[in-house]
Design goal:
The chain is an all-alpha fold and 225 residues long. The protein has 3 domains: 3-63; 81-191, no CATH class; 197-225. The protein is 60% helix and 0% strand. It is built from 11 helices and no strands. The protein has helices spanning 3-17, 24-30, 32-41, 51-56, 60-63, 81-91, 104-123, 126-146, 157-170, 177-188, 211-224. Helix 2 (24-30) crosses helix 3 (32-41). It is elongated.
Amino acid sequence: MNLEKAVRNINRSLNKKQPPTFSPIWIKYRCRISYEFIVNNIKNELGNPDWDLVVSMLDRWNQKYWMKGIKRRTVKLYEDKTELSAVLARYNDKLYTFLAQENKEDKAICDCISIRLVRLAQQGNVLAKEKITGLLKYTVSRWIECSKYLSVWNGYDDLIDRYINTCIRRFRYAGSFLGYLYRTLEYAGRGLAPLEKFSLDNVSKITGKRVIDSFCKRSCSQQDE
């Protein structure tokens, strides 16, 4: 047994049974051999079964049923530097991918790091949430500069923070967390009005003059008085 065979067995069972949702428990009782191989051999940085990796290898049409409709239990917030360090230690030299991505490999690594940190945040690790939120702000800033679909978000910093936190909380499995966040911002941004950056060189729509000119004129008048 290897990972490819385990995934193939799960795919075959899903295609045959077509459950409305599935989880590790479903796999345990429907594909016991594959389940035992995964929990004993396919682990993430914290030593837990790496279900995100397994699900990412399933047929695309099966991925969307992973944990579908299963409500998350209320989590207790905590701070654990060890958990966070375990993830960052492996990808520390790849954090630049949140700022720039040179190829598909960089994009895949950035997505992998995102999902790792999002899962910790969903478990209640406050430090992981702070870390991934900060990293994602760099990515969103780059999107705003480079994408015509997200340029409208320029200036909506507080709203961006809210949407990032919402996506972190709601992410179940959509293939790509970054893709999920991008699409969320793209759709939500369709109702936003572009914000004009304030500058003293801006021309007033009322007076037709630069703000700096009106300001100086007003200041001089007050001094003369």
